[in-house]
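Render this sequence as a predicted structure.
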Amino acid sequence: MTRAAHGEDESAPSDNSACIFCEPRGRNADLILYTGRLCYVILNLYPYNNGHLMVVPNRHIRDLASTDADERAELMALSRLAEMALGEAYSPHGINAGINLGRPAGAGVLNHLHIHLVPRWNGDTSFMAVVGNTRVLPEDLPHTAARLRPIFERLAKEDV
């Protein structure tokens, strides 16, 4: 949830004590799929499609300009690993990969950089999202995590 949703001023200096990405091992530890040295992969708590995940740096930084070379390298390496794992687990027709920087760009968490990877299939645009303002996902998050976690572990070991 955004700081604004908690009644906080988004223009104020960021406070990582309330950041959902800085303390994921508490509230959402069961959503973590893979942990690297500088970044980790976590399922989106409010997915757009089955398998919707994010690659997140451990460090509380708000944009790519704030990353160092090692963080950028690991963000991309884990995004690649995520693409491979999603392909194996779900055989999507495509994947949206993106970074939303700032509210006008659609960022839900404004002060902690993260890369979304969303599996897509031909015709997956559902009338429920348009008419009912809701999404229907046939797979719950614990099942998604159980499905993807072993694939990440195996692919990471193979990718030397």
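Summary. DSSP finds four helices and five strands in the chain. The radius of gyration is 16 Å.
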